[in-house]
Amino acid sequence: MSANGAGSASYAAAGVDIEAGERAVELMKSRVARSRRPEVVDDASGFAGLFDASALLRYRRPLLATSTDGVGTKVMIAQALGRHDTIGIDLVGMVVDDLVVCGAEPLFMTDYIACGKVVPERIADIVGGVAEGCRLAGCALVGGETAEHPGAMGPDEYDLAGAGTGVVDADRLLGPDRVRPGDVVLGLASSGVHSNGYSLVRHVVRTAGLSLESSLPELGRTLGEELLEPTRIYSLACLALTREAEVHAFAHITGGGLAANLARSLPAGVDALLDRSSWTPQPIFEVIAGYGGVPQEEMDRTFNLGVGMCAVVPASAVDGALTTLRDHGQDAWVLGEIVAGTGQARFTA
């Protein structure tokens, strides 16, 4: 007994379980290995992830691109349902599809998980989802960190974030300076809500008295299953498009909605005119708007409404671009056109 009567102190007594962390690492190793690229180099110490930069020699003037993000309060849906194997896919989608907007190929990612208590199987499921997302994106998961924060977070609470690095040749950099009047905007279908607007989603669920376990006829499955549908990862389809067709710009439709995100990829002298009648949003958006009494303007500026990515291409490239995207499993359609304007994206119908 110590002089103050508190007893002997230890990390475990403070709430940190080192052995559980080590067990989690062992459980996730095989899943992480599935995301490996040939450029990954093993670091025996495990303190850093290594990537062979000689792979960049094939580029004339390689520009490194980096992005970081999280998945917001969608983690609370995963926690409420006790399902943790897809939230990592969301993380990858939010990071790599920001990279691909400039035309960059995602090379590798790292992740960070903070939790109230390390449950090895849960951590392995989360990281397994990240690794699966990296596999779908064509990049490698080269490292990460899991931190136990007892007292700061409850034992069933966690949050995750990630950072990614990609590369693009300087002369193939995409962006607003390439966009011209007469270009066409293509819409690439989302898989649903993705990972934005979940604070509003949870508010609607709570105030409307909905249950995540309820099966809604509009959805054909439970509300919780719909809300956990992983974010679609567009990187491979978009990179194929840049190889096989002329592309002027992409826009990743995340928080802020379609118009605001597309406007970021427009120069000051043009507008994007978008035809709302060219697609039908998934039923989940009708559920959110209907049960929550959410007006169209608020839906527009909060959710992707069924359009997760946009591509801006010259009119002559439209047919080929749509074929390429569909050949790579991506539903796409003509969403609008580029006209002279002031740098805005707006709906015409």
From TrEMBL:
UniProt keywords, alphabetically: ATP-binding, Cytoplasm, Ligase, Nucleotide-binding, Purine biosynthesis
InterPro entries in UniProt: PurM-like_C_dom (IPR010918), PurM-like_C_sf (IPR036676), PurM-like_N (IPR016188), PurM-like_N_sf (IPR036921), PurM_cligase (IPR004733)
NCBIfam families given in the database record: purM
Domain PurM-like C-terminal: 180-343
Keyword DNA repair: no
Catalytic activity: 2-formamido-N(1)-(5-O-phospho-beta-D-ribosyl)acetamidine + ATP = 5-amino-1-(5-phospho-beta-D-ribosyl)imidazole + ADP + phosphate + H(+)
Domain PurM-like N-terminal: residue ranges: 55-168
GO cellular component: cytosol
Matching PANTHER family: TRIFUNCTIONAL PURINE BIOSYNTHETIC PROTEIN ADENOSINE-3, TRIFUNCTIONAL PURINE BIOSYNTHETIC PROTEIN ADENOSINE-3-RELATED
GO biological process, one term: adenine biosynthetic process
Pathway linked to the protein: Purine metabolism; IMP biosynthesis via de novo pathway; 5-amino-1-(5-phospho-D-ribosyl)imidazole from N(2)-formyl-N(1)-(5-phospho-D-ribosyl)glycinamide: step 2/2
Protein family: Belongs to the AIR synthase family.
Domain of life: Bacteria
One protein family per Pfam: AIRS_C
GO molecular function: ATP binding; phosphoribosylamine-glycine ligase activity; phosphoribosylformylglycinamidine cyclo-ligase activity
Species in which this protein is naturally found: Sphaerisporangium melleum
The protein, known as: Phosphoribosylformylglycinamidine cyclo-ligase
EC supergroup of this enzyme: ligase
Cell location: Cytoplasm
Keyword Endoplasmic reticulum: no
Enzyme Commission code(s) on record: 6.3.3.1
